Amino acid sequence: MGDQRSLPVPDGLEGERLDAALARLFGFSRTRAAELIASGDVLVDGAVPAKSDRVHAGAWLDVTIPPPPAAPMPVAEPVPGMTILYEDDDVVVVSKPIGVAAHPTVGWTGPTVIGGLLGGGHRVSTSGAAERQGIVHRLDANTTGVMVVAKSERAYSHLKRAFKERTVDKRYHALVQGHMDPLRGTVDAPIDRHPSGDGRFAVVAGGKDSVTHYDTIEAFRAASLLDIKLETGRTHQIRVHMAALRHPCVGDLLYGADPTLAARLGVGRQWLHAVSLSFEHPATGEWMTFTSDYPADLAHALEILADEG
């Protein structure tokens, strides 16, 4: 049984298409609104409408919003290429390979960090939602590098708080198109879901506070290698902020990167690597730093650029 909503069409939406009106009223994407209409979950004055119907002020809407599908549980199987950088009773630190999500989500059927740890016989904390046990931060499926997972309940609560309070040092290297001006700077711009509802995020007024510090390590002819420190950890934050500056990560076609350059450098994903992670150990209080080398595809792209002078 879904969530039932009944309300009149407000005056301000007079003459709007039904799918657009629903998107405005409930904060759905237009696509999601169209799906609800097609599945018979929307009635206008008691009748089944079409998504292109125009709505009239005062017409009565009955909308049934189905419950969100449950996320699948992790599949416990070893993940090739995922290496353990450090492990004790409280934490396990991994270097995550390409094509691996942090935990299962609706629509992701590929390997996960949690599944790989469970498949390798590693215990993880049972705090948090069942499908994301021990996950205190995430990397995109195609972003590689260092990630910490909590094994004890104490570590889970300590690290969750540390990430929230920004007492963790997260460093990334990103290869971006063009040259940064200035060479070093800070992007402070709020991020939220892109209004299109297509899975992208964007700089949006009223979005979540998002701060990215960058510094140029090396400038090549067509691209620049940046050292990036994240103050916040929003979904796709570096990718969105770099794209907003018109310097998308090389290979990041979702955010407007040049496919010709990506092909020439042999990069089939965003050139972005979580190169180091530092945090206070939840049990000992010791400040610990872990680093991860560039994977082969990213290293190869840099070699090509260096050879070009």
TrEMBL record:
Domain of life per record: Bacteria
The active-site annotation reads 140
| Keyword NAD annotated | no
Q: What class of enzyme is it?
A: isomerase
Q: Does the keyword Isomerase apply?
A: yes
A GO MF label: RNA binding
Put simply, this protein is called Pseudouridine synthase
